[in-house]
Amino acid sequence: SNLELKDAGIYLRLGDAYFANKQTKSALDNYKKAYQLDPKLPGLSKKLGTVYALRNDTINAEKYFLEAAED
Q1: Residue 24 to residue 60: CA distance in whole angstroms
Q2: Which distant-in-sequence residues (6+ apart) come within 8 Å of 68 by Cβ?
Q3: pLDDT tens-digit readout, 28-41
Q4: For a Cys-Cys bond, which of 8, 10, 25, 59 suits 34, CB 3.0-4.6 Å?
């Protein structure tokens, strides 16, 4: 629905705000919520990959970076 897509954008921006504040756990939580609502949101896979990499979760980082490369 349109509301879910709009919410995805809100979660993405929340994630960006947490990320800018170096709060990677909260950034990740919000990016994951955005992804559940709209996995095709531009730039989201790369952001997820970046946060996972910073949190030393290389398996998930690689998964999302590969996804981002397909966009």
Answers
A1: 14
A2: 45, 46, 49
A3: 999 999 999 999 99
A4: 8
